[in-house]
Amino acid sequence: MKRGKTWLGSVLLCGSVLVGMAWMSAPVQADWPQWRGKNRDGVVRDCEGPANLPQKLEKEWSIEVGTGHSSPVLSEGMLIIHTGDGTRETIRCVDAKTGQDRWTHSYSVATEKIAAVVGHYGNSPRSTPSIAGDRVIAMGASGLVTCLNRESGQVLWSNDLRKAFPIPYPEFGASASPLIVDSIAILHVGGPQGGMLAALKLENGEPVWTLKDDGPSYSSVVEVAQGKDKNMLVTQTQKTFTGIDMRGKRVWELPFETPYMQNIITTTLAGDLMITGGTSRPLQAYRIQDNGKPKRIWENKAHSIYMNSTVVIDGMVIGVSEKEKGHLFAVDPATGKTLWKKFQRLGENCEVLVCARTLVLMTDAGKLAFLNVSKNGAEVLREYTLTNEPVTTHPILDSGWIYVKDRIQLHAFKL
Prior knowledge:
By secondary structure, the chain is mostly beta strands. It is 0% helix and 47% strand. The model is unreliable at 10-28 (pLDDT under 50).
């Protein structure tokens, strides 16, 4: 075996064996219909992991789509992406195999800039669309919600919930991705002077319930099981970590603040533990008690996280800390103790995915790596440069294909 220096450090090379790619199971299109995948946990479904990794990825196509932090989503061979150019936002559907347009829907946006983000983040969508059946729900940077037919792109309804608030979006733009539960879309809207969670009927956009709060952060809502036939919605607001029942009633609320109201991460579930955190805050875990209230089980000050969320793999919680400009870490979900930390300077917007027992790491510098991880550490299997442009979106890994959006382009690679 040969070892060579790479952007992650020491990479494992297996000579001429690594010239092709084979999946340990027959490719099954698992889809990636919303933020962080089917269950919002970063796990690639119907994936048993790569058998052989090629020395180079073959790029199948690239198309220019526009700017924004909104990540692509995938359903039945259709990729949908929400982007903008500062004056218009566009929801676009392309064929996943060819990159050819299926349909586009474009609309004007207010010409005033989102002051805190222009020049660094752009005045374009941050929220990732969600797909349920034949419906696509998307929310723009200023909070406008649009529902389209997945096949045709026809606008079925729109709801301008932002009109209810004096400042209609957070300082850095509306970022919470819609969550679809059964026939209901859960949205988090509003700004620094107040906001609300809203449950809208997928059929027509009419409210089922609304719940006022201190305003949305940049975190996205997840659904948490709370015993047989009892689920709740969990998210971060600007100043709290909160749980809401499926009828829109607040069940619990804990103070949770970060500098400049930058609550960003999406809660990860590790068994019955809720893993959360934020910039300048410890990584921490909570468990719902018999009285329905959460209790903090542990915290780990070594691994505060900023613009990314954790994953659970093989009995470990793994993520990228903001410390050391981005180190990869693993903690024991039962105790919160650090199992290991590796690498440095991975960046602010790193994303991690789970494919069976393989960890997939995407950095904001356009680098992608496959890693073998265990409780003893992490070893790079193969790494690639997918683009030289910044990547601040979540990639998709599906049936031997990788899709990634950089600053202005959407790329497709074949493994």
